[in-house]
Amino acid sequence: MENFFDKLAAVNDAINGFVWVRIGLVLLIGTGVIMTVVTRFFQVSHIGHWWKETIGSIFGKGSASRAKTDKKSISQFQALCTALAATIGTGNIAGVSAAIVIGGPGAVFWMWVAAFLGMMTNYSENVLGIYYRRRNRDGEWSGGAMYYLADGLGSKKGMKGISKVLAVLFAIFAILASFGIGNMGQVNKITLNLQSAFFKNPEALGTVGGIPVISILIGVALMILAALIILGGLQRIASFAERVVPFMSIIYVIGALIICIMNYRNIGAMFAAIFKFAFGVKAAVGGAAGIAISQVITQGCKRGVFSNEAGLGSSVMVHSSSNVKEPVRQGMWGIFEVFFDTFVVCTMTAIVVLSSGHIDLATGFVKQGVSDATLVAQVFGESFGYLGEIFIAIAMLLFAFTTVLGWSQYGTKAVEYLFGTKSTVVYKIIFVLMIISGAVMTSSLAWDISDTFNGLMMIPNLIGVVALFPVVSRITKNYVNRVIKNKDEAPMLSYDPQIEREMAAAMAQDAAAQSED
User: Fold this and answer.
1) Whether the Cβ atoms of residue 140 and residue 234 lie closer than 8 Å to each other
2) What pLDDT shows up at residue 284?
3) Which of 220, 261, 303, 380 is deepest in the core (most CB within 10 A)?
């Protein structure tokens, strides 16, 4: 078994290096730049509008963003929470600490850059997802990169065959990624942190084939819990996410802020180190080689994407199930999703790690004996005692477990595209059973496989987004003219004339109801 994992790791390393270092990051950053420019820096130029229409809209009485119009869709806020459930996971805790340990403090800067550009990549994905979605045989909305690749890119001259191949590849990679980033990687980190907090000697209960029994028991418990929710479908996943995601995010941010206040003396040096090492290399100490700028950028961007998933095309599959009618409105939720995930939650983790004293802010090197897998738990433990370790173990459990739930839906939609709705039950059963493998797999291999699947999934999606940038540009301009500038234009709501008429009629009905109120 050990020999098999060694060979698997070697193959994965070769694919990972090609996908991420050679083409992935260039395509990722390039797409973010293109979509930012063609939308005229929408994330900045209309910041007040998208803030008001997203998080600002949920507090109003009778909020449309929280309302559900039928049993076959979910509300806009539920779509956000389900997407955040899939994005706020181990990447926000272990992923950020790994980026800093491997790439130095400068990796945080590139995480921010990737997120700023990723706002408009995620926006564009969701605009295209809503515009090219359709209803399946059960009356539920189905959307995602596979649909805008097949129907959007496929509508261009000579691209029909290529677009279908890319759509199928994306769906295959999405299924594989659901077992990596959405299953093995998350469950592995849950297991490690629970063992660190509650089972200091994992082998005390014995081993089976060299695997601690406690790891197997954790995997079985998570499998049963996941089955109860996942097999209930999107409605049950969204309902769970709507209740858990806001609570767990706020509690984690509050805990991180307290540590920030406790270590306030290091804040200035921390931000100085972030910007200093973003454009340089770690100083060589004791003959150790410094880390090149390319590795700093790679770690920052890679871990940023692992966290907020902008560019993967993953969250589109949940956002497309929303009851929203305007593509741009769901696109704005995509902007907020990346903002909250990276600029709020990931930044809080970075502050916890960099202000803790475990990173030498003068050299950028991690101090001896520090493990990126449990670094955040260690800092919380030093700040709050044993309760801090328990807090992080529970936070990791909630963050990672909700990610598993969210990604199960992504994989379900990918399977539906390839094999039809009846096949999704088989996928869900396999997905749930695979949870145990994450609990017993080595941490580095689970994480590396997740990285590779992310990159493979990203490439066909970003090809579609870049090829369809004129569509995103026209839809955005149409929305700005109608809603912000109050010009009289017909809305752009769907590529399908029948769906367009259906959505336009529903919008007119909503407008009439509001005028009566």
Assistant:
1) yes
2) 42
3) 303
